[in-house]
Automatic annotation (TrEMBL), chain A:
This is ABC transporter permease. Residues 56-248 form the ABC transmembrane type-1 domain. Pfam families: BPD_transp_1 (PF00528). PANTHER family: INNER MEMBRANE ABC TRANSPORTER PERMEASE PROTEIN YDCV (PTHR43357). InterPro entries: MetI-like, MetI-like_sf. The keyword RNA-binding does not apply. The lineage of its organism: Bacteria, Pseudomonadati, Pseudomonadota, Alphaproteobacteria, Hyphomicrobiales. Belongs to the binding-protein-dependent transport system permease family.
Length: 263, 303
């Protein structure tokens, strides 16, 4: 293209300013705890705070549970639909897109009404069952991304031939799922898993309204009560998001070599 | 990946044995029962419960009064501010996102810019909620770096101009931080779908670049552009945490109002709360349905 290069450069530079300045400003702000001198005190305060450690651990565990439940729900369903019930695909796709249509705050509002302690299934009655409800809620939030990722992964392999080959060798359903289908969509699962982790780790609405001691409500508490620590937490959260996306890319690259190695 | 392939490579003693038939069709639906039970319990029923509740009075009788009560001034204004902020951040995100995507995809900028922008967009589009709110408070808040630098270097007091990070513009600028990257991520494949041959053919026929854009590229792109804008709209309309982190409960937008209603029944009417939720579903639902329709239209050209 021979047209003037000035316009695109201006767009890129303005974009870089808009996206980098808040990061720089946040970092600078997080260093201001001491008067007239930059320090990492805010980070030390945050990382040393037992509430930080507890809430971060809690959210990490919830994120892992979400990934396990989500994968166990999505992979067999997507596999089965592709193999046996292709006519159901539009219905399933529509359902998996619904969490983008119904805002999270509305979904959790419904939970609080249906599963309250005086209902037929009082999931919010005890902390343990509320944790379960939180995990299921997060699976719902992750559904659009997880399903898409796995479904795309399944389309790149020949599900029918793999299944028939396994069956002719005498494999049964659990074995087909766990030793053939799962490893073949491993990359898609890992990609979906990291995205799920990035969504769950700082999630606020579900955790706050279900009253769970997660990282999101902790962030809110610190934001309301401290001056510089929120900025430090913001930088930490950005680093976590970056790590998740970076890992998706690394494993995504793995995929190409994996595909190429297949005969 | 090696494991199953090795399994396949095993010599098999009975190659000509007919395949054991999979479970017959009438039972095949059993395989999707867990999914449908899950969707019903944790997605459909909770939503339907609220929708049904919106049409009932406290005693459970059918009524349209809750929907009429949505017209109360404070509720209408909450919806309206939400719609304004979502529309402004969606249009802004679409415009600047499209510019950025076009700059990187179409014009011979250095090759490393594109993967950098795509990776960064992946991160920034997921960098939302409270951490994003904190970042913008540290940037454009009263003590934020940009605010302080503007006043100490240029003597320009941002807050004297009426700007406030806890306001319409503050929220819109903050939302753009995840809206622009989302636009970049979704629009880039569409821009890649513009085939070189189309441009070359139009040039051969004597078209100017402007004519190429107006008569070929734009008509192909507009469903993506409009559709993505609608998705961005729904995306910011349902956002809670960013707004809550920035403004606490000072800004009267509909998600914050619903949050307060769930916490403490501030409307003093449970069923009005359900109607509030129903209104949100209708608004995000309309924009998402339009997005999906436009998406299918645009995919016709981009295969």
């Amino acid at each position: 293209m021979k047209r003037a290069r000035l316009g695109p450069w201006i767009a890129v530079i303005l974009g870089a300013i808009y996206f980098l300045v808040p990061l720089i400003a946040t970092f600078e702000f997080s260093l201001r705890v001491r008067r007239n001198q930059y320090s990492f005190d805010a980070y030390a305060n945050v990382l040393g705070d037992p509430h930080f450690q507890a809430s971060f651990l809690y959210s990490t565990l919830i994120a892992f549970a979400t990934i396990v439940v989500g994968v166990m729900l999505v992979v067999p369903t997507a596999y089965w639909v592709q193999l046996r019930l292709p006519k159901l695909r539009p219905v399933i796709e529509f359902i998996t897109l619904l969490p983008l249509v119904v805002p999270a705050i509305v979904i959790v509002f419904g939970y609080l009404r249906i599963y309250n302690s005086s209902s037929w299934l009082p999931l919010t009655g005890s902390p343990a069952s509320t944790n379960v409800l939180l995990v299921f809620g997060y699976v719902t939030l992750a559904l659009p991304y997880l399903y898409r990722s796995v479904d795309t992964g399944l389309r790149t392999i020949d599900v029918r031939t793999l299944t028939e080959a396994a069956e002719s060798l005498g494999a049964r359903w659990p074995r087909i799922l766990f030793t053939i289908i799962f490893p073949n969509v491993r990359v898609a699962i890992i990609g979906g898993a990291f995205l799920t982790f990035a969504i769950v780790i700082g999630e606020f609405t579900f955790a706050a309204l279900l009253d769970r001691p997660a990282f999101g409500p902790y962030l809110q508490l610190v934001g309301a009560n401290r001056a510089y620590e929120p900025a430090a937490l913001s930088i930490i959260a950005f680093a976590i998001t970056w790590a998740c996306m970076g890992l998706i890319q690394i494993f995504g690259r793995d995929r190409r070599t994996g595909v190429a190695a297949r005969p | 990946m090696e494991q199953p392939l090795e399994a396949l490579a095993l010599p098999t003693a009975q190659p000509s044995r007919p395949l054991r038939r999979l479970p017959t069709m009438p039972l095949a639906w059993l395989g999707v029962v867990p999914f449908f039970v899950f969707a019903l319990m944790f997605l459909l029923l909770p939503t339907l419960f609220l929708i049904a509740g919106a049409f009932q009075d406290p005693d459970g009788h059918f009524t349209l009064q809750n929907l009429r009560d949505l017209l109360a001034p404070n509720i209408i204004s909450a919806y309206w501010i939400s719609i304004e902020i979502s529309a402004a951040s969606a249009l802004g995100g679409a415009f600047f996102g499209a510019l950025l995507a076009a700059a990187v995809v179409l014009n011979g900028l250095p090759g490393w810019l594109r993967p950098t922008l795509m990776t960064f967009s992946g991160v920034a589009s997921n960098f939302a909620g409270l951490p994003l709110a904190f970042a913008f408070l540290a940037t454009l808040g009263r003590m934020g770096l940009v605010t302080v630098l503007l006043s100490s270097l240029l003597g320009f007091n941002l807050y004297r101009t009426g700007f406030n990070i806890l306001s319409f513009w503050g929220l819109t600028i903050t939302y753009l931080y995840f809206q622009i990257p989302l636009m970049v991520l979704i629009l880039t494949p569409a821009l890649d779908g513009l085939k070189k041959e189309w441009r070359e053919a139009s040039q051969t026929l004597g078209a100017t670049p402007w004519q190429y854009w107006r008569m070929i590229a734009f008509p192909v792109l507009w469903p993506s552009l409009l559709g993505t804008t609608l998705l961005l709209f729904a995306n910011s309309f349902g956002a809670v945490a960013t707004a809550y982190g920035l403004t606490g409960s000072t800004l009267n937008i509909v998600t914050i109002l619903l949050y307060a209603q769930i916490r403490g029944d501030v409307l003093h009417n449970q069923n009005l709360g359900y109607a509030l939720a129903l209104g949100m579903i209708v608004i995000t639902g309309l924009s998402n349905v339009a997005y999906i329709v436009l998406r299918t239209r645009s995919e016709r050209w981009l295969k």
